[in-house]
Amino acid sequence: MSEKQAVTAAKTDHEAAPAKATKPKSARRWAREFAVQALYELFVAGHEVAAVRLRTEGEPDFKRADKDFFRELWTGVTTDTDALIAAVQPHVDRPFEQVSPIERSIILIGAWELRQRLDIPYRVAINESVELAKTFGGTDGHKWVNGVLDKLAPLLRADEVAAAPTRGRR
Questions:
Q1: How far is the C-alpha of 142 from the C-alpha of 152, rounded, in Å?
Q2: CA separation for the pair 9, 25 (Å, rounded)
Q3: What is the DSSP string of 70-124?
Q4: Residue 46 Rama label (left phi>0; alpha psi -120 to 50; beta)
Q5: Burial letters for 9-34: b for 16+ Cβ neighbours within 10 Å, e otherwise?
Q6: Which domains, from first to last, does the chain contain?
Q7: How far apart are CA 75 and CA 17, in angstroms?
Q8: Which residues of the chain have pLDDT under 50?
Q9: Are 91 and 151 in contact, with CB atoms under 8 Å apart?
Q10: pTM value?
């Protein structure tokens, strides 16, 4: 087969392959993504909490987010930051302030969900944080986020973690 034929065959094979269907983001995922970006702004630029929330809620795509969930998440993380950091710090290998602002934001969101939103299964809270880290974080940031939250979950959700089947446990 000539080089030209090989290129043509490769293009044909590629074009024939079905595109991977992406599931649309849920309103809660949108809310979490906005929270990550808003917390990043808070950590990096140091703007006022209320101003960051209002600017975030003014974003054109904010209409896609679960507004009530965003506000509850935002209020919870920004008013309870010290307690969340205290819960997370034993599972972090450096002072929390040295963690990148993106991973710091994601960890705080995950810790808040594990602590405050018992209606959200712990595996879902961890998975959502891992997905945020894959979207916004560094190359292996999702692995680090998973490790930290996986250590935190048994402390905050002992009964739920103990009751979970061991097969496929995070």
A1: 15
A2: 35
A3: HHHHHHHHHHSHHHHHHHHGGGSSS-GGGS-HHHHHHHHHHHHHHHH-TTS-HHH
A4: left
A5: eeeeeeeeeeeeeeeeeeebbbbbbb
A6: 26-156 (1.10.940.10)
A7: 45
A8: 6-14, 16-17, 169-170
A9: yes
A10: 0.84
Spatial separation of the C-alpha atoms in residues 123 and 169, rounded to whole Å:
9
**Predicted pLDDT at 23:** 77
> Are the C-beta atoms of 73 and 112 separated by less than 8 Å?
yes
Are 146 and 126 in contact by the 8 Å Cβ rule? The answer is: yes
Amino acid present at 134: K
- Six-digit token pair at 8? 């043509």
Look-up: residue for tokens 């090989």?
A: 6
pLDDT in tens, 26-42: 999 999 999 999 999 99
The answer for residues whose C-beta is within 8 angstroms of residue 140's C-beta and 6 or more apart is none
92-101 pLDDT, tens per residue?
999 999 999 9
